[in-house]
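In practice, a research group might receive sequence data for several interacting partners and want a quick structural hypothesis before committing to experiments. The following worked case mirrors that situation: the sequences arrive first, and a predicted assembly follows.
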Amino acid sequence: MIRPWQLEFLRSAFVMESDVSDIADVDIWIEEIRSENEATIRQKPIADLDKWKLEPLSGNLSHVTGRFFTIEGITVRTNWGSVAEWDQPIIRQPEVGILGFIVKKIAGQLHFLVQAKIEPGNINLVQLSPTLQATKSNYTQAHMGTKPAFLELFTKTASSHILVDQLQSEQGARFLSKRNRNIIVEIDEDRGIELPTNFRWFTLGQLKKLLRRDNLINMDSRTVLSSISYGTGTQDVADVLKILFFENESDGKLLISALKGDQGYRDFNYILSWITALKTQYELEVRPKGLSAVREWGYYDGEYRRFDGRFFKVIGVSAQVRGREVSAWDQPMVQPTQSGLIAFLLKEIDGVIHFLVQAKLEPGNFDIIELAPTVQCLTGDFRSGKSEYYVPYLEEVLSAPSDAVLFDAHQSEEGGRFFQESNRSMLVLVDERFDVSVHGNYCWMTLGQLYRFMEFNNYLNMAARSLISCISFV
Amino acid sequence: MIRPWQLEFLRSAFVMESDVSDIADVDIWIEEIRSENEATIRQKPIADLDKWKLEPLSGNLSHVTGRFFTIEGITVRTNWGSVAEWDQPIIRQPEVGILGFIVKKIAGQLHFLVQAKIEPGNINLVQLSPTLQATKSNYTQAHMGTKPAFLELFTKTASSHILVDQLQSEQGARFLSKRNRNIIVEIDEDRGIELPTNFRWFTLGQLKKLLRRDNLINMDSRTVLSSISYGTGTQDVADVLKILFFENESDGKLLISALKGDQGYRDFNYILSWITALKTQYELEVRPKGLSAVREWGYYDGEYRRFDGRFFKVIGVSAQVRGREVSAWDQPMVQPTQSGLIAFLLKEIDGVIHFLVQAKLEPGNFDIIELAPTVQCLTGDFRSGKSEYYVPYLEEVLSAPSDAVLFDAHQSEEGGRFFQESNRSMLVLVDERFDVSVHGNYCWMTLGQLYRFMEFNNYLNMAARSLISCISFV
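A structural hypothesis for the assembly, expressed as tokens:
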């Protein structure tokens, strides 16, 4: 069944030209926002961070008010993978934030209200974010801070206008059980909104096109965009849509995969059983400990990092932004020390494109394993000779001929917590020589089957959702 | 879509007479099993339990080998309900058990392989359990104990024969994040199995009939039976099935509700958003603490209980069973000190029966709230004058006229951990005078919509699943 608003999303995904904004102007717009706001971001020793303290006994890093987030240690024990036990720092922020887009029909097409937003960790400083990015204290106005723009459109909207509303996880390797509410709210066509200069309307097709550029659409936008599904339809429906929306621009195969929610190479029931079996087999025990007790990590030169320099480190950052108002603050941030790569392998099976999905255990996961891309190297180095462990299917991704690469761009992690972290994101089509039988932690799914899991909490991880947001049917 | 095996389940649900077993003989069979096994179950002070120890510092109760389970303390903080913070003991058993039925076509009808099983906490000692009830050490044979009967049918079966395979939660008020794999495996029609005297085949219809008796079908059976869904179909399909399977025995309205997985009084998308909003609104923080530090609880007369005697207590039990082999062991068990009641209110809306579902927070929940029955009083007393708090919709359940009561029987909690705990379980139909607009923590759903959540982990709580297992279409 394809609902009316799913059809509207689909139509918008094919609209590349809009009367209200031209994506050719995006760079100029971003440059305007950047120059309106004079920003200085510089690194600073953690111990010198204003209003942040190292707790005397635990060594944990927290804000003097107890607000925002803390950086704590954990000990992880698991029977997944080759390392049975390790310590690491992790970001603890036990609250649910809101990431939301306002959408509205303009000239008959659904448009998304996008914000050009400055974050201290952003590559290029400004990236395009959802209409609303709010922490719980923002949206409950608990601390009487600045009220985020358009907040009331999300909190006072009749429920009938909520098109998407999901709780999705953050990165399980860096965040302890952190989740955000991903929401898309439609407002009436005739409802006028006065836009500040840092907000603009774009169609879904325009956003998909901008996603092909490096580090432009931020992580929060990508996770909300990934939540848009198009319903499930039969082959007939898919054929009709194909004719309606595009002629020779695309072969429509990804759209057909998107509408296949039930049957695929694997029956949905088989996939449910596969996940159940893995959650039964794998164990994950996460115990909190103080940062000062975390093995193989310590404070050096004002940073908190591993002795061997691997994976990531925690640094101190001092940010100052002078715009219409001046704000200045210090905060710790996570900075990767290695290059990251995420990729889905795609393969046509029985005429339908399938995604090779990995069941992956990460310490911050809510429910042991989540569905991840075929290759996800965010915490280990994937470059040849730089990694001490074998990554399945990495070779197929890196050696793919250029006409098999459907998508290839660098995408940033969230700039409020991660400092200049960007991961290469790829969709790679393999041919009939690629064996359809795969290792037990991997499973072929249609895009529609992935969307079906998306509706329920804690199934698809952030990296998988980020890649799915990059899929374009055009 | 209704799958072939879902149709087989549905057909079996209407079969009350089987060539292989007559439910009129069940009492005789159970009496045989009881007399073959001379069992002595008696209470004993916790401190005297053989092989169990109170840990010196924490006061936690654990087995000397570190196996089985522990009883520990927790501090709970939440903004749900009227009590913002409390301490309580909880059972910690961080592993996934298997609860499984073998099913097989006999004389053309699907039969379930049922075990008459002795558990120390069982009312009447013997209750009917699934084919397999195994802990992780049982099924991995980690400790070389007795291998459970029929284990190999579950572990060595080709995946194509797995009909149902779900991870479902235990009671969130008593267990800390405990889950079991609920599995139904079909074996070939011509596969002969030699049955020990404590195993018998029954149709789903026979089991549904036995569920109308008090404390006969155990909790483990009920949770697995609840996982059987029948697919989704249109009104037309439902009408055809109605004609196929029954004429004047039933009006088929519950079956129609069961097949409505998408549209109901509330759109499925609305329900997802309702759950997301509640999980965003409510917070649950559970921190471990030693039993000796748990406020308002302590050891008295060999039991661990609240000063005021409310809710439940932990007692020591010594069990001895002399059958073909002799086994004797001591263990702590949880015993309720108050009467329990669980009930769904049902109402016909637009010609389809809907269930009034409660979003309920319990400390052991995996994901903050789970979908619960309209009324669930397991931890508080529901009798008039005995309870200090108001229970919504309790009055409608207790004062329902007898022709509105579709189901009313006492059902037991799991007899391996709970001592003689039985809760009154009811399905009550309300009429058109009952207001369709309900409090924000409640939502009307079709049975098919409930089944849709059942497929995914951690949505329906144990009490809701227990009641759903009791639903009969006949």
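Before designing any experiment, note the following. The mean pLDDT of chain B is 90. Chain B has twelve helices and 24 strands.
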